[in-house]
Amino acid sequence: MNSIDFSHKAVEMVDVVKKFGDFTANDRINLTVHKGEVHALLGENGAGKTTLMNVLYGLYQPTEGAVRINGKPLSVKDPNVAIKNGIGMVHQHFMLVEPFTVTQNIILGNETTKMLGMIDIKKAESEIAALSERYGLAVDPKAVIQDLSVGAQQRVEILKTLYRGAQILILDEPTAVLTPQEIQELVGIIHNLTREGKSIIIITHKLKEIKQVADFCTIIRRGKHIDTVEVDQVTEEDLASKMVGREVSFKVEKDPQPQGDRILEIRDLVVEDSRGIPAVNGLNLDLYKGEILGIAGVDGNGQTELIEALTGLRPAKSGQALVREKEITNLTPGKIIQQHGISHIPEDRQKRGLIFEFDIAENLILENYATEAFSKGFTLDFKRIYRNADQLIEKFDIRPQNSKLAAKALSGGNQQKMIIAREVANDPDILIAAQPTRGLDVGAIEYVHKALVDQRNQGKAVLLISFELDEVINVSDRIAVIYEGKIVGIIDAHDADEKEIGLMMAGGTA
Amino acid sequence: METLIKDIGFIIGTTLMYSTPLIFTSLGGVITERSGVVNIGLEGMMYFGAFAGAAAAYFYQDPWIGLAFAGVGGMILGLIHAIACVSFSAEQIVSGIAINFLGPGAALFISRMLFDGATQTLTIPNKMPLPLDFLFGEGNLFPSSGFMDLVFNRFATVYIAFFLVFLVWFVLYRTKVGMRVRAVGENPEAAMTLGISVTRIRYGAVMMSGLFAGLGGAAMSIAVVSRFSNTLISGHGFIALAAMIFGKWKPQGALLACLLFGGAKGLEIFLGSKGVPIPGDILAMLPYILTIVILVGLVGQTTPPGAIGKIFDKSEHS
Ligand SMILES: Nc1ncnc2c1ncn2[C@@H]1O[C@H](COP(=O)(O)OP(=O)(O)O)[C@@H](O)[C@H]1O
Ligand SMILES: [Mg+2]
Predict the structure, then answer these.
(1) Of all protein residues, whose CA lies closest to atom 4 belonging to ligand 1?
(2) DSSP 3-state assignment of A17?
(3) Is there a contact between A117 and B190 if contact means CB atoms under 8 Å apart?
(4) A131 and A142 share a domain?
(5) Which of A297, A364, A495, B145 has the fewest CB atoms in 10 Å of its CB?
(6) Which residue has the higher pLDDT, A413 or A342?
């Protein structure tokens, strides 16, 4: 536990209600955060966590309720008021000006000037260097944002709040985009901050992280305040069921099943990344019907390039990938989907998985629009397209149940359900799932895992790529460890040992 | 030899003169687009400025008062564009098109009222002064019609335009206000979360672009020529817009692109005056063709400001 000053209430939100038209996003939420405390906000996608924090930061005006900062009632009518009162927010989608430098981003809106209104960039740079030193937030003040890693960009966001003297920091899903190492760094930073008496509100879906960093946790479900608990007193399962409103199983249920025939054979595959360096470097792997083969590995060991080569999105330099003894490397994605029965749940669902502006029904036929099922002659058969959508929405529980809604209006979990629905409806022989649960909450994760197991039970071959070792161990039948573009070991998931796999992922020999 | 040098001086001088209206307008384009608001209404603003400038210069018999009217006139159209695009989230291209009808429409309407139904003003009594003649007396600093005289003895607007290029660059890239303008044009949400008013910045930038375009129009009607006529501004606003894009949304880039176009125009006039056996209509196309060829050939890929043309609705973005 951090050294919390229980006599000092840094933030009090009392019976906060926020309505958007008829829709109530926050329904009488109470939140108290003390000085030096890390307080987690937990809730499914769309529960109203970001909305509540936007109220605190002055981006939204509460419909009802009160906010007190350090005991004083405060009407936070815009971010300026929040900033002046020591509140800083790191938004889920970073609020950075990409072509600007780190320093420019940090001082924006709070610039120190010298004569003629010129910005004193030198002074700002040295202040920022000092600040980053003090809290262990390593960034180069002169670097341009678009050249920085996501982790470094996040450090810039945190520095932005500290530069304005924030005492209360809101972090909206800060770990969703980070690698495991970066997450550990963030945990260290959070400790540095609370040690100085700062209060932190952290939004996350990841129960493990709550257990690791938070003192208290407030759970919100559908805009309602469910409970506030002391983290030490509850288990991850408790938190999960409070959040979802039912029991959630972390264990993936699956019966043993005999391995079927070999369907995919990868031989000495070499694939270059965009810089021309072989990212997949002589990889061998077999995939059988009726199994889930998980690929475990640290990000950047050739996973992305492997998937892209198998799905026709990137040329293979040499070697082969054979589906039922037939070569598929360097075919077009269309051929691979239609003739070789490979379906793909892409890593970046917003960029490759769907078209933001298209509605659900249209997104559901992206691969099949030209087939007889959905078109007659030159024109699309919208009657059938929407009927198809209604069926899939029902079957895959996509919410809201409105086939005419644009994909961008769906939550991450529902976008993923839509993609899974489309890919599975294709009745593939091989399903490639790349990081299928990234950014999803536990309820949605459970759903995705069930869908993968379901495919396996139907005798399909599933190739699962994930950076979350827990997930790979939990869902797979066999685990292949990838390191520097090669498979360095294959393990039966039954006798998988997390430590052993971790070592192999880091290039050690088991 | 001497004629060659003189000819070169003549071409440079005409280049400067014809570039100036474009430079003003193009700078206006840089300012507004840097804040994220597209303004294809520059043409209409320039047109109105050309009229307002000439009319005021005629009635007050003072080109400076003309220039002021032109600036304010352009700014009013800028205000209309800002109200539509910033406050009412109108499609920026559509509003720009409307401004392009509104500017000329208003100019011609008022012209008919003031000048006995004519769609042009009367000749203004005093054009923009030549600062060198004003300061040193005619022919005292450089011999009349010599190379130096041809190049440097130019209207005050030419000097103002070059100074403004520097000023706009300085403000955009060295000052607080400029940084905020660019931030708003790249990522308005980010600016908003830091307590910067996107609305205020954009209003300011769009109105400044109107002011600059108005000055550009006047630089044509009270300096290059000495009256407004209904065909005076025919596409110059669009060329300035293109120059701003070719100049990669930078003041110095826009300057170069405008000079290039002005240079082609200077060449056209020079060749015309020498009686080169090329039909006048073909010669008149020269600046446009040259501009396209050179710019397409020389200018690589350009990256516009990130949020350009996108409607920013405060309530939608958290
Ligand atoms: N500006 C808005 N207008 C209308 N509805 C909104 C707005 N912002 C959020 N919502 C809705 O409020 C609910 C809660 O959203 P949010 O607070 O972002 O959830 P969370 O951060 O918990 O995932 C969602 O159903 C979302 O669609
Ligand atoms: Mg959120």
Answers:
(1) A20
(2) strand
(3) no
(4) yes
(5) A495
(6) A342
The answer to whether A59 contacts B193, with C-beta atoms less than 8 Å apart, is yes
Testing ligand 1's pocket by substitution, the residue of A26, A31, A42, A51 carrying the most ligand atoms inside 8 A of its CB is A51
**Res A510 pLDDT > 60:** no
Could you tell me the pTM of the whole model? 0.82
From CA B172, how far away is CA B244, in angstroms rounded? Answer: 15
In this structure, is residue A469 part of a structural domain?
A: yes
Measured between CA atoms, the residue of chain B closest to residue A114 is B175
A348 found inside a domain:
no
SS3 of residue B175 by DSSP: strand
Residue B304 contacts A, CB cutoff 8 Å: no
Note which residues in 180-209 of chain B have CB less than 8 A from chain A: 180, 182-183, 186-187, 189-196
Q: Is residue A405 part of a domain?
A: yes
Domain boundary pick from A402, A427, A452: A427
Residue nearest to atom 20 of ligand 1 (CA): A46
Q: Where are the alpha helices (DSSP H) in A77-149?
A: 79-84, 102-107, 121-135
pLDDT in tens, B40-73: 999 999 999 999 999 999 999 999 999 999 999 9
For residue A228, give the CATH number of its domain.
3.40.50.300
Closest CA to A45 of A211, A215, A173, A174: A173
Count of domains forming chain A: 3
pLDDT of B293 reads 81
Structure tokens at B139: 């022919």
Q: Are residues A499 and A467 in the same domain?
A: yes
Supply the range of the domain harboring residue A25.
5-244
| Report for A410-419, B11-20, B198-207: range of highest mean pLDDT | B198-207
Transcribe B219-232 into DSSP letters. HIIIIISSS-BTTS
Nearest in space to B81 (alpha carbons), one of B68, B71, B69, B90: B90
In terms of CA atoms, which chain B residue is nearest residue A78? B195
A346 within some domain: no
List the domains of chain B with CATH numbers: 2-302 (1.10.3470)
**Cis preceding-peptide flag for B63 (omega within 30 of 0):** no
Has residue B318 got a pLDDT over 60? no
A92-118 pLDDT, tens digit per residue, is: 889 999 999 999 999 999 998 888 889
Across the interface, of A51, A83, A100, the residue whose CB is closest to B195 is: A83
A238 shares a domain with A150: yes
Look at residue B295 in the predicted model and tell me its pLDDT: 67
ipTM, two decimals, is 0.88
Question: Which residues have a Cβ under 8 Å from the Cβ of B209 and sit 6 or more positions away?
Answer: B28, B29, B31, B32, B39, B42, B45, B78
Query: How does pLDDT run across A308-324, given as a tens digit for each residue?
Result: 999 999 999 999 999 99
Judgement on whether residues A396 and A261 belong to the same structural domain of the protein? no
Q: For residues A309 and A440, state if they share a domain.
A: yes
Return contacts of B111-118, CB within 8 angstroms, 24+ apart.
B111/B51, B111/B55, B111/B228, B111/B230, B114/B55, B115/B55
- Boundary-marking domain end, from A190, A212, A244: A244
Q: pLDDT tens digits, residue range B97-150?
A: 999 999 999 999 999 999 999 999 999 998 888 888 888 887 777 887 788 888
Terminal CA-to-CA distance of chain A, rounded, Å? Answer: 36
Residues A208 and A101 in one domain: yes
Contact B187 A95 (CB under 8 A): yes
Angle at B152 between CA B148 and CA B156, to 5 degrees: 160
**Separation of alpha carbons A108 and A153, rounded Å:** 15
Residues A240 and A281 occupy one common structural domain: no
Give the residue-averaged pLDDT of B12-18. Answer: 93
Contacts of A111 in chain B (CB under 8 A): 176, 179
The answer to whether the CB of B214 falls within 8 A of the CB of B73 is yes
Pairing of strands A5-20, A23-35: antiparallel
